[in-house]
Design a protein that fits this description.
- This protein has 247 residues and is α/β, with parallel strands linked by helices.
- The chain folds into 2 domains: 6-24 and 70-110 and 156-246, Rossmann fold; 26-68 and 114-149, SIR2/SIRT2 'Small Domain', CATH 3.30.1600.
- The protein is built from 8 helices and 10 strands.
- It has helices at 16-20, 39-42, 45-50, 52-68, 73-80, 97-101, 159-167, 218-230; strands at residues 6-14, 86-91, 106-108, 111-117, 125-127, 146-149, 169-175, 196-201, 212-215, 244-246.
- Strands 3-2-1-7-8-9-10 form a 7-stranded mixed sheet, sandwiched between helices. A 3-stranded antiparallel sheet has the order 5-4-6.
- Helix 6 links the parallel strand 2 (86-91) and strand 3 (106-108).
- The radius of gyration is 18 Å and the shape is globular.
- Residues 234-247 have low confidence and may be disordered.
């Protein structure tokens, strides 16, 4: 038996599209970070084993860039929902822009740039904020510190917890993701048929069943959508007709 839907609960599933509007480049677009690096070299256990110094340099630069970026109006609008709703943000992003915007319940399924961890099975984590990680910098168990990032071939984190939140949400907002990175993208399947479900993106190849598509930038649409929810429903949604595509 599925758990009851909580009328006052909103789950946000966010991806790189919301952070790119704060100046953080994506890995996958034409001007993204993969243009200069192969994913095998900087985002896989094999790359780490072969050239850990290259991996550390890559993520040190990403960490610095993310620390210099600022939350945008979409991040802040999502945080403002907490004044009236229980809001859970499940993000594929490794920056902390949601937290710095004021969101207090953020689940990072792909890890976090501002943490490091050891490389033993114990996986002790350390908050490092914007500090670099250097070769020879060790965890207390004696292993080399590495970025606390989920690389290709590693297990995505907090999937069961995230799925449970989606199963009990009355509203689900997917923003800034094309839902092409699995298994995180599969989380949308946990959203209930009776929930209000909206996806905000610039483009979408295949809309998940039951979702309403709102085409555009997160910074253009999300603030108005959140204002509508705070006002008590869809009556405040200026995109309720002409700018939507329904699956």
């Amino acid at each position: 038996m599925k758990p009851e839907i909580q009328a006052n609960k909103i789950v946000i599933l966010s991806g790189s599209g919301i952070s790119v509007e704060s100046g953080i480049p994506t890995f996958r677009d034409a001007n993204g970070l993969w243009h200069n690096y192969s994913w095998e070299a900087v985002a896989s256990p094999a790359g780490w084993q072969a050239h850990p110094e290259v991996v550390l340099e890559f993520y040190n630069e990403r960490r610095k860039h993310a620390a210099e970026a600022q939350p945008n109006v979409a991040h802040r609008a999502i945080a403002a929902l907490e004044s009236a709703y229980e809001v859970i943000v499940v993000t594929q992003n490794v920056d902390d822009l949601h937290e710095r915007a004021g969101s207090t319940n953020v689940i990072h399924v792909h890890g976090q740039l501002n943490y490091a961890r050891g490389t033993s099975e114990g996986r002790k984590r350390y908050r490092i904020n914007d500090a670099p990680i250097s070769m020879g910098q060790l965890c207390e168990d004696g292993t080399q510190l590495r970025p606390d990032i989920v690389w290709f071939g590693e297990d995505v984190e907090y999937m069961t917890e995230s799925r449970r939140h989606l199963e009990t949400a009355a509203k689900v907002l997917v923003v800034g993701t094309s839902l092409s990175v699995f298994p995180a993208a599969s989380l949308v399947k946990a959203a209930r048929s009776r929930a209000e479900k909206i996806l905000v993106a610039l483009a979408m190849d295949k809309l998940p069943y039951g979702f309403r598509f709102m085409r555009g930038k997160a910074t253009s649409i999300v603030p108005f959508l959140c204002q509508g929810w705070l006002a008590g429903g869809q009556n405040g949604d200026p995109y309720s007709d002409s700018n939507t595509t329904v699956s």
